[in-house]
Amino acid sequence: MNSQMNPGVTARRLNDDSLRENFGDLHAPLQPHEAAVASDRCYFCHDAPCVTACPTDIDIPLFIRQISTGTPEAAATTIFDMNILGGMCARVCPTEELCEQACVREVAEGKPVEIGRLQRHATDTLMAKGVHPFERADATGKTVAVVGAGPAGLSCAHRLAMLGHNVALYDARPKAGGLNEYGIAAYKSTNDFAAKEVDWLLAIGGITLENGKALGDALSLDDLARDFDAVFLSVGLGGVNALGIDGGENDSVIDAVEFIELLRQTDDLATLPVGRNVVVIGGGMTAVDAAVQSKLLGAQNVTIAYRRGREAMSASRYEQDLAASHGVQLLFNVQPKAVLNGGASTQIELEYTAVTNGKLAGTGETLFLNADQVFSAIGQTLTTDGGLVLEGGKIAVSERGRTNRSKVWAGGDCASGGNDLTVTAVAEGRDAAMDIHATLMGGVE
Fold first, then answer.
1. pLDDT averaged over the chain?
2. What is the fold of 241-376?
3. 32-128 architecture in CATH?
4. What are the start-end ranges of the E strands in 84-147?
5. What is the value of pTM for the model shown?
């Protein structure tokens, strides 16, 4: 990060003990007796609304009943049958807006069954034993290329391998996992869990992983479509939107995705430089993760500046409250206008916004904030299309992930129709795999 040149940005703001405490597990795992108590709160509803609210359709009442009867391994199998990345989803899924929000006890009492923590208890229990709950079907002789080893790609590759197909899994980065490895706050996925989950998933067999191979560089979509029976694209969004303001190229302006990646991959958090005054531009999960982790690294004043109102933020209210609980200030209805570098100090000029005739516009009224670092978290863009039809800047796909090209499917953040959640990407990869399987084995057009 070039921001190290700024005198207001420095490493080792906190000692090792403080950093270790700050970046510990956000939610401690349930102990067996705690899981038993938590599972007993479930009503085991018929036509449970929590299942409908789950993008991967996990049978939640069933797995909670299995925990309550002392068989967490069986509960894990129930989870993994629908969501092979159930361990990570238990850590990062916004359950407060999905299954737990729909929970009958949430509606009646304001306190839902702790579905996410129970899911983690079950999946961690089984994974700790090194057991893979599924076996491969007989070999089909079919080969599928999966490009992108993020949540959608991993989910698709596992389901295809389980069905007996041979899968070549490619990823541009040195490690598999996608955003699970590089883009999630460190306090949500501790102890190198993302990498361990990938290794556990690959134990199904039938999947060959090759890192350092990107679509459009080492890989050609035309070649893949020729050499394999099917192709699944889960390449994510590699481009980063620029702020597009005066001073936006200043050394103090940093891509929030890059910052989170550096934080996730470092072996020593104390070496990461952070400003005393940090401003994060954006309203999504990346903005919240960058802001909270800046605080945890020792930044004194951290502000999230979002151009619309609170209700429009894509980050959940839970995540907003999490940021506030760590001392992050949230400013709404402000947009960046300029970054002003005065040598020893840097400021950002923000302009208040308002909606007029249905359109967001600046009001002309401004304010200035000290900002040793400005993190830009205003979204990413697709960097390759491979001749595919696009929709809203993403690859246009059908409900089952089919693109306009024969033999080519897509899912995850790069595909249209999703909501950029890990759990949704898992569902898209799984469903595309089932459609690929049906097409290869049954001749479905």
1. 94
2. FAD/NAD(P)-binding domain (3.50.50)
3. Orthogonal Bundle (1.10)
4. 143-147
5. 0.94
